[in-house]
Write a structure and sequence with these properties.
Layout lengths: L4 E6 L3 H17 L4 E6 L3 H10 L2 E4 L9 H22 L5 E7 L3 H11 L3 E5 L6 H6 L5 E4 L5 H5 L4 E4 L13 H7 L7 E6 L6 H8 L2 H4 L6 E6 L5 H7 L6 E5 L5 H7 L2 E4 L3 H10 L3 E3 L9 H11 L3 E3 L6 H17 L1 H14 L4 H14 L2
Parallel strand pairs: 1-2, 1-4, 2-3, 4-5, 5-6, 6-7, 8-9, 8-11, 9-10, 11-12, 12-13
């Protein structure tokens, strides 16, 4: 039997890479002879995640779209170079399926796959598809989405759409909270408040929490903070805690999020599609601070799905730092005091969890490869 070949295309953020890695891991678990290759951006986060998972990759020179004349020319040239690289690479194999996961890197690869006449699947975990997947949909044979509301964006094109949830890394199936506690030297007798701005960190969230450290001192006997600062913000955030009365651990990045989220009692973070799916999988109550600058406000919509089942509270990332911090404290103080409410929120997570999304998608992709 010929080997099956799967090319995942997407990148620029962890949200485009982590779901693809989860599906790829399931593919090789089901069929160990399957071959996996990633097309990603040149951003360091892409390579870090893919290498950590043990897969091969090709970094493409594609850059984001811009209407500015000079930048548009750079965009067009980079897309053409990326298309040629992808087309040459895909041409080397048979029994191929290409999976677009979003981001500007995915479009030249999906176009190359279309020219090569190989099956194309899309993985769209945000509630509103981004520009790339809206373009890629014209060539797709099947689309996998996290939310049922997303299906309408693709059924207009008469595509086969499967609502399966968000694929998550295998660690979410069997998290080890004690491992995170030991790795970060945390106090086992204190509850954990986790602060995260996703893979890149969030300067606004960092500053909001910094402004509340004096007030958080009131919880020092029972709580401790783990703050994921983001690689570019680590030094500043570390300095924030120099005089903090509450126990804390500041790290730039943490690979074992399944373990850390399982150890957390409350999380403050962004509400990208993967982030909200991870909060739900870990059954951890969350204060979501959606990224406010997306035109389609998709992080608000993602967080709204958690609010619907009582699993999260939304605090706007307001332009004024004082207003932002006051709103955050109003919600945070109550939740840190109220264990019963946190328990109710954790139960809400379990209502909407989709733990088998990675497996379902992998099985369908293997079927697509059989007829490729």
């Amino acid at each position: 039997m010929d080997d099956k070949n799967f090319f995942f295309a997407g990148g620029g953020t962890g949200g485009h890479i982590y779901p693809a890695v989860a599906v790829a891991q399931q593919i090789v678990e089901i069929e160990p002879e399957a071959k996996i290759h990633f097309f990603c951006s040149t951003r360091s986060i892409d390579k870090h995640i893919i290498l950590e998972a043990g897969f091969e990759y090709t970094a493409l020179p594609a850059v984001g779209f811009s209407i500015r004349p000079g930048r548009f020319i750079d965009f067009a040239k980079s897309m053409l170079r990326s298309y040629r690289i992808a087309k040459d690479k895909i041409h080397e194999d048979w029994n191929i399926v290409v999976i677009g996961t979003g981001g500007f890197v995915s479009t030249p690869v999906c176009l190359a796959a279309n020219k090569r006449k190989v099956p194309i699947a899309l993985l769209n975990v945000d509630i509103v598809p981004g520009r790339a997947n809206k373009i890629n949909a014209r060539w797709a044979d099947e689309v996998f989405v996290q939310f049922k509301e997303t299906a309408e964006y693709f059924t207009r094109r008469k595509k086969k759409v499967s609502v399966v949830g968000c694929p998550l890394r295998s660690g979410f199936g069997n998290p080890q909270p004690d491992r995170a506690i030991e790795q970060l030297s945390l106090n086992r007798n204190k509850k954990v408040l986790l602060i995260t701005g996703a893979s890149s960190g969030s300067e606004n969230i960092n500053k909001a929490v910094y402004s509340l450290l004096d007030k958080l001192a009131a919880f020092a006997d029972d709580w401790q903070i783990v703050h994921l600062a983001g690689r570019n913000n680590y030094e500043n955030v570390y300095s924030y805690y120099s005089d903090a009365k509450i126990s804390n651990k500041v790290v730039s990045y943490f690979d074992d999020m399944p373990d850390l989220l399982a150890a957390a009692d409350l999380v403050i973070g962004r509400s990208g599609a993967v982030s909200v799916a991870e909060y739900v999988a870990a059954a951890v109550p969350s204060i979501c601070m959606p990224y406010p600058y997306h035109k389609d406000k998709h992080q608000y919509l993602n967080a709204g799905k958690l609010v619907e089942v009582g699993a999260a509270i939304i605090v706007d990332d307001l332009p004024d730092e004082k207003d932002r911090s006051e709103w955050l404290w109003e919600e945070l103080e109550e939740l840190m005091k109220d264990q019963k409410t946190r328990q109710v929120m954790a139960e809400g997570c379990r209502i909407i969890a989709n733990p088998d999304a990675d497996r379902k998608i992998a099985e369908q992709l293997l079927k697509m490869a059989e007829i490729a």
